[in-house]
Design goal:
The complex is a heterodimer. Chain A folds into three domains: 194 residues, FAD/NAD(P)-binding domain; 135 residues, FAD/NAD(P)-binding domain (3-Layer(bba) Sandwich), CATH 3.50.50; 51 residues. In chain A, 32% of the residues lie in helices and 23% in strands. In chain A, strands 1, 2, 3, 4, 5, 6 and 19 form a seven-stranded mixed beta sheet that branches. In chain A, strands 8-15-9-10-11 form a five-stranded parallel beta sheet. Chain A has a three-stranded antiparallel beta sheet with strand order 12-13-14, with no helix packed on it. In chain A, helix 3 runs parallel beside helix 4. The longest helix of chain A has 15 residues. Chain B is an alpha+beta fold. In chain B, the strands form two sheets. Chain B has a five-stranded mixed beta sheet. A two-stranded antiparallel sheet of chain B has the order 3-4. Chain B is built from three helices and seven strands. The chains are: A alpha/beta, B alpha+beta. The interface between A and B is large, with 59 and 53 residues.
């Protein structure tokens, strides 16, 4: 089975929804793909039309989803992109069935994931990502009676803590690894984004009973088959807190697997794009966190730019692109302020796992000279997550470059992989 | 940092809460949202439906992900290659720690799936 569209958008988060909406409004035949059960991405996860108004990002969600519904854009939820069988085609999988999708222009809005860093005990059940716990709570996890330590880095921590409280849990503390100095510098950048300032203030207000401390990080998590306590440090001293869950993530990194597979150039950890969000591959655009982790407004604007450009409305796209620099500065400010500190490199002990899929310990990989060598000798990065977790870890710990870009983008069935090359259908 | 983040919204919240306590009417959307939230909370306690996780019955509300249900059943989601119990890490389909056999389908990413009545989950 194969089908063709003028514009295919991968990722139905804010950036992807904006791009698909604009391209469809301009008269293109558009398909919006997402591997989640419902559109919305991480930020708008679990939002419903009836209840969204109460959430911090509900207004933008309602506005864009209403606009999208008025177009004839096809929304395919639950479809996973696995590869590129031929130029101009994506191979997809849904419920174990494969399908090829042809496109004239492609807009990638695959978003970001959390950066995880290893410390003793990080593989214990009950230790989740910060955004990970937020995603699980948005997906219905009941936090009543749970005592949660939120740690790691990034503005997300406050939102996560607020989410835990809203879901009935208690927050034992919010521990940001970045020093107060970097946050103060970031605060100056925030002056140009009053909306973000208000959002941060609201989250902090909702979690006022829990301490928010900067320059602190988790040294180890302990427990029998489940996390029971967490030891933290602020360089000078260490202390231990009892908890049911530890939510720990170190800011965000973009999901570059698909752009890399398609040949898009990556520089400085992000997809390289022109002012109109055109990647180094003609006809392929990258928007949102792929070009710099900058959150909702940046993704919405970039989605609109790429949507206009992909629909051939270059003048409109150029006009919109005028507004980009301030969001790009915001994204750079975030990366600077929440960069992981060097002390985090020293947390892993020889028996601490680096690769969770294949159970490869720090001691086994620390003497390898490259990611490839570690792969060949220890299977580090050869498990089901395809190096999504340990690739980011080894990049930080050992400066090993993570290249990726090999099909399939996600584990898939042999039948899907083995299907023949697609034929272009004329409609 | 505390004052830096919390000062501006403080007054707004106090005024707003006081207005609600003083009996100021909720907008219809707010009422609907409040009711839905109550229903959802009640759904996970008394209403909703059951799924089976490693033989245990778990009651879940509408729209709850399978990974969340496995966590609420206090079951690890998989056993690692060296035999350690694991539970979901990323919650968004990246880390593969939540892989389980869901309704007979091996290696399903349970965080990406929504609970359906009568579903059976066997963790790996």
């Amino acid at each position: 089975m194969s089908k063709g569209f003028d514009v295919v958008v991968v990722g139905a988060g804010p950036g992807g929804i904006a791009a698909a909406t604009i391209a469809a409004e301009a008269g293109c035949r558009v398909c919006l793909l997402d591997d989640n059960a419902t559109p919305g991405g991480q930020l708008w996860r679990g939002f419903r039309r009836e209840t969204a108004g109460k959430s911090a990002h509900g207004g933008s969600y309602l506005k864009w989803t209403q606009r999208l519904r008025k177009t004839n854009c096809e929304v395919w939820s639950g479809w996973q992109v696995v590869g590129q069988p031929a130029p101009g085609f994506l191979r997809l999988e849904h419920d174990g069935e494969g399908c090829d999708l042809g496109y004239e222009r492609l807009i990638l809005a695959t978003g970001a994931r959390e950066r995880f860093l290893p410390f003793p005990g990080w593989t214990l059940p009950g230790v989740t990502g910060a955004g990970g716990l937020q995603a699980l709570i948005k997906a219905g996890l009941d936090a009543h009676g749970k005592r949660v330590v939120v740690a790691g880095s990034g503005p997300l921590l406050l939102a996560v803590a607020a989410g835990v409280k809203k879901a009935g849990g208690s927050v034992a503390g919010i521990y940001e690894q970045a020093p107060l100095g970097s946050l103060a510098g970031f605060g100056v950048t925030l002056a140009g984004h009053p909306g973000k300032l208000v959002e941060g203030a609201l989250y902090r207000w909702q979690t006022l009973r829990s301490p928010y401390r900067t320059g602190c990080w988790v040294v180890r998590a302990e427990g029998h088959d489940h996390v029971e306590r967490v030891t933290l440090t602020d360089v000078h001293k260490q202390w231990t807190l009892d908890c049911d869950w530890l939510a720990c993530g170190f800011h965000l990194v973009p999901n570059l697997e698909l752009p890399r597979l398609l040949g898009c150039r990556v520089a400085g950890g992000y997809a390289e794009v022109s002012a109109l969000r055109q990647s180094s591959v003609p006809g392929v655009f990258c928007v949102g966190e792929l070009t710099g982790v900058g959150g909702l407004e940046k993704a919405l604007l970039e989605g609109q730019i790429a949507g206009s450009a992909a629909a051939g409305r270059a003048a409109e796209a150029r006009a919109l692109a005028q507004g980009l620099p301030r969001y790009e500065r915001f994204a750079q400010g975030l990366d600077r302020a929440f960069a992981p500190r060097q002390e985090l490199r020293t947390l892993a002990e020889p028996q601490t796992l680096v690769c969770r899929c294949e159970d490869v310990a720090y001691g086994a990989v620390k003497d390898c000279s490259s990611r490839r060598e570690a792969k060949l000798h220890t299977r580090c990065g050869m498990g089901a997550c395809q190096g999504r977790v340990c690739g980011t870890v080894t990049e930080f710990l050992f400066d090993w470059e993570s290249r990726g870009g090999r099909p399939p983008v996600f584990p898939t069935t042999v039948a899907t992989l083995a299907a023949g090359a697609p034929e272009r259908v004329s409609e | 940092m505390q004052t830096f983040f919390s000062a501006p919204l403080l007054i707004y919240k106090i005024v707003r809460n006081n207005c609600i306590h003083a009996g100021m009417k909720m907008t219809p959307e707010e009422k609907l949202a409040e009711n839905l939230r109550r229903e959802r909370r009640a759904g996970s306690m008394s209403e909703g439906f059951s799924i089976t996780v490693n033989g245990k019955s778990v009651r879940v509300g509408e729209g709850v992900s399978v990974a969340a249900a496995v966590m609420m059943a206090n079951e690890p989601s998989r056993t690692s290659v060296h035999g350690e119990p694991r539970a979901p890490l990323c919650g968004m389909g990246i880390c593969m720690e939540c892989r389980a056999t869901v309704s007979g389908v091996l290696h399903s990413r349970s965080c990406k799936m929504t609970c359906k009545p009568g579903m059976t989950v066997v963790t790996e």
